[in-house]
Amino acid sequence: MKPQKSRYKLAFFALGWLIAAGILFQVVLGTGFQRIFSAVDERVSRVAQYFSDRQGRAIRSARQTSRSEYLQPLHTQLNSVTALRNPPSMLYGIYDGGFPNTFAGMERLETALRFKFPIISFYSAWGDKPAQQFPIRMAETIHRMGSVPMITWEPWVVDFDARVRTNLPPVAEREYASLAAIAKGDYDFYIVPWAKAAAEYKRPIFLRFAHEMNDPYRYPWGPQNGNRPEDFVAAWKHVHVVFQKMGATNVLWVWSPHISMPWFEFYYPGPEYVDWIGVGVLNYGTIASWSRWWSFHQILEKAYPQLLRMQKPVMISEFGTLAQGGEMAEWYRQAFYHMTHTYSRGVRAVVFFNQPSDLTISPNYPLNWSVTQSQKASEVVAGEIARTTAL
Amino acid sequence: MPLWYDDAELFRHRRAAPIHEWERWVLGVLLFLGVQSVVYFGLWWFRAGHVNNLALFILLSFATWYGVFRILVGWYNVFHIDQPEPQAPAEGLRVAIFTTSAPGEPYEMFVRTLSAAREVRYPHTTYLLDDTRDSRMRMLAEEMGAVYLELLDIPGAKAGKINAALGLTSEDFILVLDPDHIPFANFFDRVLGYFEDEQVGFVQVAQAYGNARESFVARAAAEQTYAFYGPIMQGMHGTGTPVAIGANCTFRRKALEEIGGHGIGLAEDLVTSIRLHARGWQSVYVPEVLSRGLVPADLDSYLKQQLKWSRGVYEMLFREYPRAFRSLTAYQKISYFMIGSYYLVGVTSLIFLAVPLLYLLFGKQPAVFLLSEYIQHAVPVGIFGMAVYFFSQRWLCDPRRERGVHWRGTLLKIGSWSVYLRGLVLAVMGIAVPYIPTAKERRRARFWTLARLPLAVLVISLLGIAWTAWMQLYVMPESEVLITTEVTLGMVTFALTNVVLMSGRLYAAWVDRDRGERA
Lengths: 391, 519
Hints:
CATH class of the domain at 95-298 in chain B: Alpha Beta
CATH architecture of the largest domain in chain A: Alpha-Beta Barrel
Strand content of chain A: 5-15%
Distance between the termini of chain A: 89 Å
Shape of chain B: globular
Number of helices of chain B: 18
Largest sheet of chain A: 8 strands, parallel, barrel
Number of helices of chain A: 14
Helix content of chain B: 55-70%
Largest sheet of chain B: 7 strands, mixed
Distance between the termini of chain B: 17 Å
Number of strands of chain B: 12
Radius of gyration of chain A: 24 Å
Oligomer: heterodimer
CATH class of the largest domain in chain A: Alpha Beta
Largest interface: A-B, 43 and 30 residues
Order of helices and strands of chain A: HHHHEHEHEHHHEHEEHHEHEH
Strand order of the largest sheet of chain B: 4-3-2-5-9-7-10
CATH topology of the largest domain in chain A: TIM Barrel
CATH superfamily of the largest domain in chain A: Glycosidases
Shape of chain A: globular
Radius of gyration of chain B: 25 Å
């Protein structure tokens, strides 16, 4: 019996060591391999960029027309940070739900509107994965298509690997006061290379960092996690300083509070740190008890005077309506009316929130924000854009 | 070129290198690192964010992880590597050699085999089980001191004849010798000793080939067997699961009689060994070259042999395995399942062929991830897979001839996917494949018949690439083309890799094409 028993003991002993060694090994793989392969990743992406360029050239010579040619009249403006700080006429942009995997949804909207958007907006979360680094592929592609990228940069601090980032608190505690930690420089390991990559990209980028920071019901960087307004301001300034240090002067800073929530003005970092004010105007119609059919004017009017006082151009950074509870075409018609009359002094850019399947309210109930779901709305929007754009 | 059976070098007795303690440690470290890299790959692969088209993702995951699972079980097996201590046989055992002949097999082959059987030192009786209706065979048997048994019109092909002969003979131990195998004189001296253990039902030795240099196909087919008769079967010996492989297996009569004689069917060897294992008989694998035989030397024979095997192996899995399941040891359950599912490579190859084409032709994409991310996570598995593979080559039976990158074998195996798929379909539908002994001479066949499938893959892949180029140039929105560059590049590379993987079979078909003359 005895050897049998000691054999089991030995097995358990060995198992414990194996598990310990396994975890250690995973960490080594996680860091070591990641480091080796970030070089591989760079090379693969460079090869892809090269082919992308060739494809673009081939398409241009085959079709005799291209998207960037359509946007040619705006070329000088779209490649100058100074010009983009104060555009002479309304700038239009789009976010599409298919990004970054496909541009098919954007193509559909552009075809319906007989228009190409000068700004292409997308979202990028913080984290350790390759897809969470500076989105060079997306930015390069957008540039190739003649547009300017707008990146909504979301500090999801839990996406950093605890095994690798030993300086950070454990994942469960990390979201508390994360903005203060950012301000302190705890996340510079991530911000610095990102800023460097953004600087290397050279061309203008709209950057919308930690948007809707004053909404306690939305993102982890909101006030519900012990993030005070002064923490946000400090974090914003810190990030801004890092970008300046890295030479990323090509970035346009879009400060984006939630205007339906109170006290957003306390989150304003100051005129020397902000280029644009971003405002979401989304009409949720009658889909939930907390919402009803609000017009563009109703959503914007209360906050507008305060925004105007900040003396920065205003961008409707998320713009759209659902179909439930009203007439989409009418909503858009009124919205454009107010933009060009009531708010013409402030509002200088509009970014369509073209998400046909928005799961942020409920994963089982996708919301459709696309303009093209209504033929009539598409016609109205196409007409209004044609009337107000320089293109 | 000298004939292979005149090359004395080939007929030297060889035994796999012994296993040292330090080698086990190296193996242990490699396997530990390997398992870790599989975990690393798996934690990355199965991320919800990767799924694009769920059905395709499931298929691709099945194909990928089926391969990884086989690697894992292979590692587990090789970790148990063990060799039996050589044991001198007792004197006076009653031993028989059964060798069968079928119509169409060349006469000269029997001259060689029977004369070699006569030279086997341990006293034995050789029986020629014949149904050729060729009068020369009886004379040959008598000349070579063998007993001639004419067994006409017996169902069950080779196994049927063996069973009939069992009824006509009385020896306690029977070596079933394939007629193309030339046994060495010390064959029984290395085998019979293990039967001293009353539990041992059969003893299998390595199968080695003499004609491996004859052609591309012969070389490829031989390469496919090296690892199996080397580290794999020795690992199976360590877990008590060596199987009988038709040729060169010595059985205990009592064991065979207990299961009602030799199993019948396309995989008669496997059927026999699973039944014996289910009855509690043990088996021994001797990692020694004690005979040399023939491996299919032309593509047509090779593909026919593979169809037969895959059909037979599935039959074992579907019919024998469930019946025997409860009586098998845990190791045997795993082992027979792994053997039974070996030819699923036909299904996974089809998936790997289809994935890039579905993207290029219909825009269906199973998963979303960066190519560099895939490389980062899959490469460690590949590295340790190769490391274990090459390290365990030290236990090949004839390392000087067998060591190396077995790329011909791999190419031909992947190229034969359609045959394995057909084997599965036939087995599921219960359609029989006639039992024909594998050809003993190199034959030729029409190029088009042999090359149809790889050519089709080649043409469809190239068409898919051309179609994509045209669509991108003239039809697809510019932005869509530009953002999908990396995926398209990846898929085109994938499709071209598939074309390369078909090249082995294509080359073999070209070499073995019918040039109008009869071989």
